[in-house]
Amino acid sequence: MSDLTGARPLLWIVVPCYNEQEVLPITAPLFLEKLHSLTQQGLISPRSRVLFVNDGSRDRTWEIIRELAAQDEHFLGISQSRNRGHQNAVLAGLMEARDRCDITISIDCDGQDDLNAMDEMVKKYLEGCEVVYGVRARRDTDTFFKRFTAEGFYHLMNLLGAEIVFNHADYRLISARVLESFADFQEVNIFLRGLVPLVGYQSGTVYYDRHERIAGESHYPLRKMLALAFDGITSLSNRPIRLITGLGAVFSLVSFIGAIWAVIQALGGSAVAGWASTICFVCLMGGIQLICLGIIGEYVGKIYMETKARPRYIISERTWEPYERRYRG
Ligand code: UDP
Ligand code: MG
Questions:
Q1: CA of 112 to the centre of ligand 2 (A)
Q2: 53, 144, 210, 227: most buried by Cβ count inside 10 Å?
Q3: How far is the CA of 218 from the centre of ligand 2 (A)?
Q4: pTM for this structure?
Q5: For 270-321, what is each residue's pLDDT tens digit?
Q6: 170: Cβ below 6 Å to ligand 1?
Q7: pLDDT tier at 144 (50, 70, 90 boundaries)?
Q8: Mean pLDDT, all residues of the chain
Q9: Ligand 1 in contact with 44 (CB < 6 A)?
Q10: What stretches of the chain adopt beta strand conformation (E)?
Q11: 219 CB less than 6 Å from ligand 1?
C-alpha cells in the first residue's frame, strides 16, 4: 500500500520499563536516533513515535519518561497503575499503539537488543510480513548458566507443546492488522512469545546480536525465568496433563505387577522381608501424586484467574493527557 500512495508506515516502538532510571537516559536518545534514521531512509513515517510503558516502577523511571515526552514530541509514555510484569507491560503498550499506528516494534529498554535490526524488520514488513521475529544469532555474551537455562527453556517449551520461535524473546515487529486480531485473545495469562504465532499471518525472521545490559540489573533471575517457562507451558498446552495420565497408566501397570508379586511372595511364606522397598515405593508414589496434583492445580488456578476476567493492565497516566487532581468543593 505504501508504494501506491507514497505513504510510509507509521511506527510505534513499544518499550517496557521497570526501574530503569540508570538505563533510560542512555537508551532513549538511541531509540530516537533510530527513529530518525528509519525516517531518513524513507522506511517509516516522520510521525512515528517511541512509546515507553512504565510498569509501576519504584524509582524515577516515570519522571524521566515525562521529561523525555516534554522534551521531544517523538517520545510518549503511559504508566501502569502498578507493576504487572514484563508481558503485561508490553501488551499494554501494544494495545495502546494499535489504533494509532501501522506497525509496532517491541523492544526492551536496556540496550541489549541491537536497534539496527529494526531496519531489516521494517523492510520485511514492506515485503509483506505482518510479524517479524527478532532472533538472537549468538549467545556468547551470556554466562554459561543463563545460556544453558535459556536454551533449555526453549527446548522444554517445544517439547511440552508450546510452539515458540527458538531464541526469540520479545523483540518483534507486529502490524496493526495482527494486533487487531490479537486483541480478540482475551486471556489473562499472557505469554506473548507463544501467543503471537497463534494469531497467524505471514511472518519473517531477523537475526541480531544481543549485547550486555548497558546499566542496571536484570529483572529475570532464575526464579522468574522458571515462572515464565511454567506460565508459558501451562498457558499454551495441555500436554503436561496428558503426560500425567500416561505416567498414571505406567505406574498402575507397575503396581499391578507388584501386587501380583506380593501375593505370590505372601503365599510362599516370605512376606516380612521387603519392608524397605514398600516404604520406598509408597514414598515415590506419594511424591509423584503430589507433583501431578500440583500440575493439575496449576491448570485449575489458571481457569480460576481466567473466569474472573480481570483487566490485564490498568493505565493510570499518559504523557499526552496528564492527570490533574480536581476538587468539587
Ligand atoms: N520489565 C518490566 N516489568 C517487569 C520486569 C521487567 O516492564 O516487571 C522490563 C524491563 O524494564 C526491560 C524488559 O522488561 O525493559 C526486560 O527485562 P530485563 O532486561 O530485566 O530482563 P533480561 O533481559 O535480563 O531477561
Ligand atoms: Mg534485559
A1: 6
A2: 53
A3: 6
A4: 0.75
A5: 666 676 678 777 877 877 887 888 788 888 888 877 887 788 898 889 999 8
A6: no
A7: confident
A8: 86
A9: no
A10: 11-17, 49-54, 75-80, 103-106, 131-136, 168-175, 203-208, 315-318
A11: yes
